[in-house]
Amino acid sequence: MLKHKIISQILVGTGLVLFSSIGYTNSLKNVLVQSLVSDPILKEADAELGAAKDRVEQAKGGHYPVVSLTGSKILSQYHKDQSDYKDRKIVPGVRGSTNLYAFG
């Protein structure tokens, strides 16, 4: 009776181990995909690639023409003649620049 009880416990334990491991198995493809997604070296390489692409776009931007709108106004001044204080308008301006030669 004791022998029968021990054998049944071993069979039940073995069955539980086998059935529980079947539920947690992953295919090789899923394991490889997960390891590639979470690999820190690949994440670092992807971040460096993105930074390099951003630097290329930044360098291209240096070759575009630039147009700036400006405005100036005298905020404070002192003159003996009070008629100079009547003129408080803003003086507008436009400035443009372009890269003529890129040296390379």
Short description:
The chain is of the alpha+beta class and 104 residues long. The chain has helices spanning 2-23, 28-37, 40-61; strands at 66-72, 91-97.
Number of helices: 3
Distance between the termini: 92 Å
The Cα radius of gyration reads: 38 Å
Strand order of the largest sheet: 1-2
Q: Which structural category do the helix and sheet elements fall into?
A: alpha+beta
Helix percent reads 40-55%
Strand content: 5-15%
Point out poorly predicted stretches. Answer: none
Notes on the protein architecture:
This protein is an alpha+beta fold. The protein has a domain at 2-72. The protein is 52% helix and 13% strand. It has a two-stranded antiparallel sheet. The longest helix is centred in the first third of the chain and has 22 residues, at 2-23. The chain is elongated and about 125 Å long. The N and C termini lie far apart (92 Å). The mean pLDDT is 79.
Helix-strand layout with pairing:
Blueprint: H1 2-23, H2 28-37, H3 40-61, E1 66-72, E2 91-97
Antiparallel strand pairs: 1-2
Keywords:
two-stranded antiparallel sheet, elongated, 104 residues, alpha+beta
